[in-house]
């Protein structure tokens, strides 16, 4: 399922057990509830960090230093918490530590790490490591970085200069403290995924005036006997002989190929009370045998006979048209293969934002330095994505304003240039935004189509050159769009490109149409020509929900991004180079 959860009412779309097909649909309510109840939010991977150092300072008189690494997490509020200690390596200025630190990597969170290296005095060598008082040990230096900086390196190794705290301000010779290398490995015991196509024949009708609308739910059985849903197919309307789209089940996720699975066929009802048509109990190994033998398995239906339930064998059958095992690459595999996420931003300059010179304007620049909603969105999203972009040059546009002595533009370069749209770094976006506020006249209406098409051109040009890039466009707006169908047309075209679109709605407008663009309800966007979006590429968050504390903006905006990225790569069979 890609470990990306989103709330879905209705549940007509597919939800697969492997990360590959999370974006073929959205989360089933039962799956969503189970995952959230177990604390699973957003994309996560277990990362194992290992440590080595070179050219450490020799702080001992008659021998070399006895170094140990201590790892700390730096929280957003500035708090620093110790989380791990390595073993002590005796008499070494070039140690390689054996103990590894395992940390959960969250794509949508900036995870700040602090590493301190200590020389453990000889008198403490027999003291249990966790009992050592660090204030009694000599500091060999410290270094900090984010977890993103490590995992985005091609070899997932980052070498940091160690500096002494008292030297960090006054001394320019911090290299004398040595270097610390941190290496990351993804903890993933199995990337093997079963690719399965299932179909049924002769299903019984559960609807009075039409055929059934069948879908399958696949659940795994745990030792307690509880069934946990791991996959749901799409709903096929009015079909007694349905063939569903492929489902992907991670073998590790279901336990093993011999672990029991329950496959239930339901008739979809919009009220959520789905009718059970029949079910079978099979392992992945059993399904593989059905495929090889080209045989079907009769469904059965638990039926009350007297005071007991008996399994009534039905004429309906389940068949396996395809069963194959493939290796599913992870988001981190692509990062290690050199792929980048390139950040772009488009800002709403329509008049409904209010006069930027007045404090009640959504564009008001507070002299105290307090960020407005536009600045907060740029900073918080950019802070995460900047680590995945090598040159940190970001296309930045405005829309809905009248540049000096010109007509209203629905896509103009934020930096004021007529030749290029890029700015350097997040600070460059902030400066261009502030400058533009005093160099354009706010106008309208609110149109998205132009900026989405402009971003699509950038993505298409990159695709034509074979660049390993995936683009992320952040649109920040305060109003209701007036080109809904044109925006849908642009999004349908963009769904075939390496592009995702994040939308933040600021102010108190009615953002119902934004929720239409964000296809989290299972409804794929359709263009005026009848083309259907190949995947969901939009994520919308109203800023008022962030202000109320209901959600985290970066969490809500970015949690689905790795799955959208993987869906694009896998549908085009793009593999990470190693």
UniProtKB/TrEMBL annotation:
Q: Does the keyword Lipoprotein apply?
A: yes
The C2 domain covers which part of the protein?
27-160, 176-300
**Residue ranges of coiled coil:** none
- Gene3D superfamilies xrefs: C2 domain
Q: Does the keyword Ribonucleoprotein apply?
A: no
The UniProt entry, under CDD domains, shows: C2A_Copine, C2B_Copine, vWA_copine_like
GO molecular function terms listed in the Swiss-Prot or TrEMBL record: calcium-dependent phospholipid binding; metal ion binding
Question: Where is this gene product found?
Answer: Cell membrane
Task: Give GO BP annotations, semicolon-separated.
Answer: cellular response to calcium ion; defense response
The annotated topology with respect to the bilayer is: Lipid-anchor
InterPro entries reported for this sequence:
C2_dom, C2_domain_sf, C2B_Copine, Copine, Copine_C, VWF_A, vWFA_dom_sf
What cellular-component terms does GO give this entry?
Answer: plasma membrane
Keywords carried by this UniProt record: Calcium, Cell membrane, Lipoprotein, Membrane, Metal-binding, Plant defense, Repeat
- Signal peptide (residue range): none
SMART domains for the chain: C2 (SM00239), VWA (SM00327)
Q: To which protein family does this belong?
A: Belongs to the copine family.
Q: What is this protein called?
A: C2 domain-containing protein
């Amino acid at each position: 399922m890609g470990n990306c959860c989103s709330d879905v009412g209705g549940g007509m779309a597919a939800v697969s057990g492997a990360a590959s097909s999370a974006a073929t649909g959205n989360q089933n309510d039962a799956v969503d509830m189970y995952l959230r109840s177990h604390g699973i939010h957003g994309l996560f991977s277990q990362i194992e960090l290992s440590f080595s150092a070179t050219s450490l300072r020799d702080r001992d008189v008659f021998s070399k230093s006895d170094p140990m690494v201590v790892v700390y997490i730096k929280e957003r509020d500035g708090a620093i918490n110790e989380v791990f200690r390595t073993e002590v390596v005796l008499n070494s200025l070039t140690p390689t530590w054996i103990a590894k630190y395992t940390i959960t990597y969250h794509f949508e969170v900036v995870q700040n790490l602090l590493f301190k290296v200590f020389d453990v005095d000889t008198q403490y060598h027999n003291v249990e490591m966790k009992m050592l008082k660090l204030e009694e040990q000599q500091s060999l230096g410290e270094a900090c970085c984010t977890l993103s900086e490590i995992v985005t390196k091609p070899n997932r190794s980052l070498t940091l200069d160690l500096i002494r705290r008292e030297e960090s301000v006054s001394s320019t010779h911090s290299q004398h403290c040595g270097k610390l290398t941190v290496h990351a490995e993804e903890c993933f015991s199995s990337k093997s995924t079963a690719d399965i196509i299932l179909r049924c024949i002769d299903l019984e009708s559960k609807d009075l005036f039409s055929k059934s609308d069948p879908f399958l739910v696949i659940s795994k059985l745990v030792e307690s006997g509880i069934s946990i849903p791991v996959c749901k197919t799409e709903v096929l309307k009015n079909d007694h002989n349905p063939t569903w789209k492929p489902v992907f089940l991670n073998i590790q996720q279901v336990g093993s190929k011999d672990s029991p699975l329950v496959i239930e066929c339901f008739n979809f009802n919009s009220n959520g009370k789905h009718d059970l048509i029949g079910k079978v109990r099979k392992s992945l190994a059993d399904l593989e045998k059905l495929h090889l033998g080209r045989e079907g398995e009769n469904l059965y239906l638990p039926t009350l006979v007297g005071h007991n339930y008996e399994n009534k064998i039905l004429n309906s059958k389940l068949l396996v048209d395809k069963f194959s095992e493939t290796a599913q690459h992870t988001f981190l595999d692509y990062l290690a293969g050199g792929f980048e996420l390139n950040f772009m931003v488009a800002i709403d300059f329509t008049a409904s934002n209010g006069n930027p010179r007045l404090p009640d304007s959504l564009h008001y620049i507070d002299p105290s330095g307090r960020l407005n909603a536009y600045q907060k969105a740029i900073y918080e999203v950019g802070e995460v994505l900047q680590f995945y972009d090598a040159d940190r040059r970001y296309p930045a546009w405005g829309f809905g304003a009248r540049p000096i002595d010109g007509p209203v533009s629905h896509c103009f370069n934020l930096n004021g240039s007529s030749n290029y749209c890029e700015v350097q770094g997040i600070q460059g976006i902030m400066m261009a935004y502030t400058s533009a506020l005093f160099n354009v006249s706010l106008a309208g209406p609110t149109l998205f189509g132009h900026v989405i098409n402009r971003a699509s051109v950038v993505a298409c040009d990159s695709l034509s050159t074979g660049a390993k890039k995936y683009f992320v466009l952040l649109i920040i707006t305060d109003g209701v769009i007036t080109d809904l169908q044109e925006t849908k047309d642009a999004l349908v075209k963009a769904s075939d490109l390496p592009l995702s679109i994040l939308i933040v709605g600021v102010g108190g407008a009615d953002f119902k149409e934004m929720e239409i663009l964000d296809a989290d309800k299972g409804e794929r966007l359709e263009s005026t020509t009848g083309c259907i979006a190949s995947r969901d590429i939009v994520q919308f968050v109203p800023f008022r929900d962030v202000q109320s504390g209901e959600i985290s903006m970066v969490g809500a905006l970015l949690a689905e991004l790795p799955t959208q990225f993987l869906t694009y790569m896998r549908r085009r069979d793009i593999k990470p180079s190693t």
